[in-house]
From TrEMBL, chains A, B:
The species this protein was found in: Thermosipho japonicus
Record keywords, A-Z: Hydrolase, Transferase
GO CC terms of this entry: cytosol
Descriptive protein name: Phosphoribosylaminoimidazolecarboxamide formyltransferase/IMP cyclohydrolase
PANTHER family named among the record's database cross-references: BIFUNCTIONAL PURINE BIOSYNTHESIS PROTEIN ATIC, BIFUNCTIONAL PURINE BIOSYNTHESIS PROTEIN PURH
Record-listed E.C. numbers: 2.1.2.3, 3.5.4.10
InterPro entries given in the database record: AICAR_Tfase_dup_dom_sf, Cytidine_deaminase-like, PurH-like
GO biological process: 'de novo' IMP biosynthetic process
Xref: Pfam families: AICARFT_IMPCHas
SUPFAM superfamilies linked to this entry: Cytidine deaminase-like
GO molecular function: IMP cyclohydrolase activity; phosphoribosylaminoimidazolecarboxamide formyltransferase activity
Length: 297, 297
C-alpha cells in the first residue's frame, strides 16, 4: 500500500499540540476553505457524508449533522429545506458547530435556511454557484464529494488496520410482535441505515424519518438504550429503534419498550436470542432481525 | 508512506460481512492466539495499552480495561492483583468480554486472579512463562508489546489522515476554588491521563486512583458530565474529574459539583472561560487548567 503525501495543510491534528497529514488522494474538492480545515473537520465530514450517501437507498432528501464523528441528527423529508432544518433540530444543542452533509444538490434556498445556524462545514456532491457564494460569505467551509469507496481503519501498535465499510443486505426478518406495514418498515430501515454510522454500542430511536434519540459510544447496550430513551423523552412513544448489534440480554429491549418504542430492528447472534425474542413478544414489541452487525468505532 | 501487507489473517473486519487487513509491522508478538484475533480485538488492545503505558508517568501498577476502543475501567494500586481487580470492578458489567492491558510484568498470580473473569485479550510488555501457560489454557489471547510510537488516524474520502498522539505537558495551573495538595493533584493527573484515551466528548470521574464514572462518546460536554455522574452515583462524592476539552458553558461543571465532585481539571479556551471559572469559584470547586486538549475519537 503506497500512499503519497497529499498537498493539504491541516490546521493541526486531533488536538492543537499534535500534527497531522493527509496521504493518498481524497475524493473531495474544497470549494471554499476560509479557516484552514482541521483533521477533525475532515473526519466529521466523512462520518456525515457516508450516512447521507447510504440514505440514497430510501426516497426523499436526506440531511445528517455530525459532531465528533458520530451523527447527532439525521432526517429524510420530501423538501430539501425541511430535511436540513429537521436534522439540525433533532439535537439543536449538539448541532451547534457541527458538520452538515446532504445527499442532494445544495442550492441558494438551502444556504439561506442555515444562515443563522452555526455549522463548520457543509458537504454535498453538488452545490449551485449561488449557494457557494452565500456559504462563503458566512465563512462556512464547503466540501464537494466525488464518488469513492468508504473504508474503516486505524493505526495500531505502529501498523495500520484497514477494513471494508459496507451495509449488510437490507433485508429485515420478522421475529416477534405485530408485523409492520411497508411505511413502518421504511422507518425501521431509516433507523438502521443511520445507526450504521453511530459509534458503538449504539441505539438509535427515530420517528417521521428523523432521529429523536441517539445513544452512542457506550461500553454496554443497556446503557446505549438508556441514553437514547432519556434523550428522546416523550418522542420515544410509538417510535422506531435500531441497534447496531444484538441484545445480549432482554434489558436493553425492555428499556426501549418501557419508553414506548413500537418497533425494533437488531442483528441476532446472542446466546440469549430466544430469551430476547420472547421478551419482545411478551411486551408486544415489533421485533425484526437485520442481516448483519453494523459496529462503527 | 509505503506500508507492506503484514502476514496476519484477521477473523473479519469491524463486522463479520467486512474484511480487514494489517499493513506495516505491528509492534506486538502474539504469545497465544487461540481464536483468531479480530480487527476490533487489536484496536481495543491498542486503546488499552496506550493508556496503561501513559500511566507509567505515575507511581504504582496500572491496569486498564477497554470495550469498543474506550476504557470502561482503569486503576493504579501498589499491588498488581489489586490493580487488575480494581480496574475490572470499576465497571464490572462493561468489563465482561473486554480487553485488559497492564503496565507491569503479568505473572502467575495475575493470571490466577482473572481466572474467573471473561476477558478476550491480555496485553502487557512482559509475561512470565507460567502466566502464558495459565492464560493459554483459559483461551485468553496474549499480546506482548514492544516499544513503538502511537498514532491516530482514519481513512476519509478514499485517503488516509494520520496524526500524532501525545499528551500535552502535564502541568496543571490552579484557576479557582481551594488548592489541592500533592496527593490530590496526583488523583487529578490520573483522571486526566485516562481521559486522554476516552472517546470525546469525555468526562471522567475517579477516586483512589480508580475510575468511578466515565462519560464517553457524547456530542455535548454537558451530556458527558451527566453520564459520568449517573454512573458514579454516590462515588462521585469527594471524587476528582477530568474533562478532555474546555467547558463551553458552566452547565457541565455544575452537574459535576452537584454530584459532589471535589476537583476538576480541564483545558481552557472557551469564550466563556471566565464565566466557567467564576462558577467553579462560587461552588467551591477546585478547578485546574490543563495545558492542552486531549480529544480522542
Amino acid at each position: 500500500m503506497y500512499l503519497e503525501k497529499f498537498d493539504l495543510d491541516l490546521r493541526y491534528g486531533e488536538n492543537s499540540h499534535e500534527k497531522a497529514e493527509v496521504f493518498g488522494k481524497p475524493a473531495f474538492g474544497i470549494l471554499h476553505e476560509g479557516k484552514q480545515l482541521s483533521y477533525n473537520n475532515i473526519l466529521d465530514a466523512e462520518a456525515a457524508y457516508v450516512i447521507a450517501n447510504n440514505l440514497k437507498k430510501l426516497k426523499g432528501y436526506a440531511s445528517v449533522v455530525v459532531k465528533h464523528q458520530t451523527p447527532c441528527g439525521a432526517s429524510i423529508k420530501n423538501d430539501k429545506i425541511e430535511s436540513i432544518l429537521s436534522a439540525i433540530a433533532a439535537d439543536e444543542e449538539s448541532s451547534f458547530g457541527g458538520i452538515l452533509a446532504v445527499n442532494f444538490e445544495f442550492d441558494e434556498e438551502c444556504a439561506m435556511a442555515i444562515k443563522k445556524k452555526y455549522l463548520e462545514v457543509v458537504v454535498a456532491e453538488s452545490f449551485t454557484q449561488k449557494a457557494i457564494e452565500l456559504l462563503s460569505k458566512k465563512k462556512v467551509r464547503i466540501l464537494k464529494i466525488n464518488d469513492y469507496e468508504p473504508k474503516v481503519g486505524k493505526p495500531a501498535f505502529g501498523a495500520f488496520l484497514v477494513g471494508e465499510r459496507k451495509l449488510p443486505d437490507l433485508k429485515f426478518t420478522h421475529v416477534a410482535g405485530p408485523q409492520l406495514d411497508v411505511e413502518e418498515l421504511n422507518e425501521l430501515l431509516f433507523a438502521f441505515i443511520v445507526v450504521e454510522g453511530v459509534k458503538s454500542n449504539a441505539i438509535l430511536i427515530s420517528k417521521d424519518l428523523t432521529t429523536v434519540g441517539i445513544g452512542t459510544g457506550q461500553p454496554s447496550r443497556k446503557r446505549a438504550a438508556w441514553i437514547a430513551t432519556e434523550l428522546a423523552g416523550e418522542k420515544a412513544k410509538n417510535a422506531y429503534a435500531a441497534s447496531d448489534a444484538f441484545f445480549p440480554f432482554p434489558d436493553g429491549l425492555e428499556i426501549l419498550a418501557k419508553a414506548g418504542v413500537k418497533a425494533v430492528v437488531s442483528p441476532m447472534g446472542s446466546i440469549r436470542d430466544e430469551e430476547v425474542i420472547n421478551a419482545a413478544e411478551k411486551m408486544g414489541l415489533s421485533f425484526y432481525k437485520a442481516e448483519g452487525r453494523v459496529f462503527r468505532h
